[in-house]
Amino acid sequence: MDPLEQSRVFLDCFKTNVNPADPLPVRVPIYNLKYDEIEAAIIDWSRTYLDQFGCPQCILTPIIRNVVEDVLSYCKENPKSCGFTGHDYKTLQLNQEVISRVNHICTELLDNEKLNNLLAQVCDERGLGEDHPDSAVVPVVPGNKIHFSRGMKHRRRRMEDRHVCLPDFNKLFCTKDSEPTAFYGVYDGHGGQEAASFAASHLHYYIAQSEHYPQDMEQAFRDAFQKTDELFLEKCKNHYLDSGCTAVACVHHLASKRIDLAWVGDSQAMLVKRTGGEHVYKQLVHPTHVGSNLASLGEWMDSSARSYNSISLIQDEQERIRAEGGIVIPWGGQFRVNGQLAITRAIGYTSRDYVAIHTSVIILGNRNYKPFVSSNPAVSLNRCTEDDLLLILASDGLWEGYSEYMISMFVLYAIRKFPGK
Hints:
It is globular, with a radius of gyration of 23 Å. Strands 1, 2, 3, 4, 9 and 10 form a six-stranded antiparallel β-sheet that branches. With 421 residues, the chain is of the alpha+beta class. Strand 7 and strand 8 (334-337) form a beta hairpin. It has 13 helices and eleven strands. The chain folds into two domains: 3-123, no CATH class; 162-288 and 343-417, Phosphatase 2c, domain 1, CATH 3.60.40. GO terms for molecular function: metal ion binding; protein serine/threonine phosphatase activity.
């Protein structure tokens, strides 16, 4: 279907199924938000809400940008109506204003003239029909999805992980990019969903807001990870939260074929190549932020082609923790930070009350995991070749269950077996 037909199908579905009286159509956090945090939340809530109705990408971004402009303007004109308490914003009240604006804009688009004007604006912004250098515009085939995502809960009572796919990253956040960019992130939550949810809605926003983006991606990543961590730790203190999450984030520069990655913890990313065989994959993220790796270092080296450079990085992690006053000790068959956490870098993790069996361990270390569990990410800047076909990002649940080779071959088989699916 062309963009106009996709949009009409979505708007018909929206008109049929929307419930304006629903008090909570999307989940909101328990904590309040500061003014410089609400734009990221507005975008996240709008995107989540519109995804429920199958909003096509061609109008998703312009609808969200209109909602952001309307709500931010209204927050300045009438802050109390948006939940402003004098210090921050109540998320439930702000969310209701956001959803109301989304409903209003989508209802207006049922008018064919307004829908045609919006699509014409999108075409103008993309530069379709004009002459551009080959590097300036990346052709996008309507309806041709360039990513696939899925989250699955295993044995935990609640789903604590989150993932984000933003194929129009530069348009959605009005970045200074000179080419189309996309953002993808995977957040593996522990001890609750709050850290993963906050990172999934704010990390990419602070990447786009960094003064170093896009010319210095390494520093932009570091700025964003550390700011996200600092803001969430403040909420942990105010609301007695103790959750944390690992993260792997990717900014894909489409025209220049660059894939820039940053990560904390044990989530990973790898490239899968078009040609099969022994070298069908290339690991871009190495799990050097895992305290347990040295427990079976020989096995870890034998299991796949790990470099001695990676071993040195793991040992450096242990030395960093000891230098900052923490310890890495064996507990339950694994090396753990302060005898508890199996990862050495993450977003969140303040403190947690443990049962008596862990009391002796608490005495050995500090109940507060900071600064031992750092939010300073490792960064990998890469340029794709013609042989690189796709990128896989996933939490440790996938990599612990299957080898990189098996994952690569399975995905290649599925693509060839079910083309276009």
